[in-house]
Amino acid sequence: MYIYDTIYIVRVKGIVVKQIEAGRYPRSFATHRQHVKLVKSIVEAKEAKDDLVACPKCGSDMVLREAKRGENKGQQLWGCSKFPSCCGVIKAG
Length: 93
Hints:
45% of the residues lie in helices and 14% in strands. The chain is α+β, with helices and mostly antiparallel strands. Strand 2 (76-80) and strand 3 (89-91) form a beta hairpin. The longest helix has 22 residues, at 29-50. The radius of gyration is 25 Å and the shape is elongated. The termini are far apart.
């Protein structure tokens, strides 16, 4: 490794560290695309969360599960994501 390579690496590392510490990257087309991609993923995650079923007892999200025991063994059901503190259940489909 040449001395110039080392100086370049140290300089680039210093620039990146300053940008991270400042919490902001310089304005450019590449960073704009990264920002747009991040915002789209956040919006899609929120939209997907809106499609979830709400628990009738506590209002939290429901999770699709399969009954392990009882007369409904093997059938799918919506169970509360806060199980075992909440035992809300809805029959699936």
